[in-house]
Amino acid sequence: MPTPISLALQGGGSHGAYEWGVLDRLLEEDSLQIKAVTAASAGAMNAVCLAHGFEDGGRDGAKATLNKFWRAVSDADGRNMFGDTSVWSNAIGADWLRDTPGWRWAETMASSMSPYEFNPLNLNPLHDALEKVINFKAIRERSPIALYVAATQVRTSRAKIFRTNELTSRHIMASACLPNMFQAVEIDGEPYWDGGYLANPPLWPLFYDPTPDDILVVSLNPFVRKTVPKTPVDIMDRLNEITFNASLVAELRAIGFVHKLLDEDLLRDHAKGRYRHMLVHGISADGRLDDLSAASKLNTDRAFLEDLRQRGRKAADDWLAQSLSGVGVRSTLALEDFQ
After folding, report:
1. How many CA atoms lie within 13 A of 270 on its CB side?
2. Of these four, 175, 248, 263, 300, which has the most CB atoms within 10 Å of its CB?
3. For the chain, what percentages of helix, strand and coil (3-state, to nearest 5) are there?
4. pTM of the complete model beyond 0.70
5. In contact, 242 and 225? CB cutoff 8 Å
């Protein structure tokens, strides 16, 4: 019998193709069964690809849907907003260009305009890619995987979790709405921004619903950097990584604290039934995506996405070799590192 697991998929723009590679490899592992996915932003896109594919054709269907979606992302390649695709992709992927005075001036000018000004039609090629590939009605009605998608409420600064039976392409766009690039996505009169600001990804829904005891966290933002950033670009990149990891670090710290309470029998009798000893595992971006800048999260060039997929497959391969035996038995992620 395969061991049931939940996945927690972090957001990170086109670096989500790294998760594509991780999932592509995990789907080949018959000893694991994905029963729930909690996600934000690009992770949410991968989550609905999984659900749609499983509903349509099991593991092979999930692999095919992920491939089809990321091919659609590459085909869109920003051409609705940014003109020539190859020029745009090559420019944003060139780190040397980002260190020039001209690029810094352009970034300063861009930051002075909102998407309501430079993108008044609110064009978003990712929405078209989702609509082209995903049958959201089938997900709402028949998904074999429980989904939890995070978005940030603009007015209340609270995280909102959208569940399987309510998901549409607008909910995914809300979860992936970077406010410096796209207008807030309104759902039932409430405006939303990217879920990664407050829950990247959200782990707490997995504790309160009947989901598997094992959680595999796939992160896209490196936790550890060996060097101290010194240029304006590098400082901003590292600040973004720390910001988008903050909520995940806080939740992992809380899980470690609950483990301590359970292991040392520190809970009162009336509280013991309210907590589960979840087993946490992790496939991180550390050492895998360290060479990529934050700007490369906008690069949807096909060769770049394929490179990320291969990196993700290798990371999953390594994790399976080192940690698969711990699934269902113990946590293989060192939670004490987050204390």
Report:
1. 0
2. 175
3. 55, 15, 30
4. yes
5. no
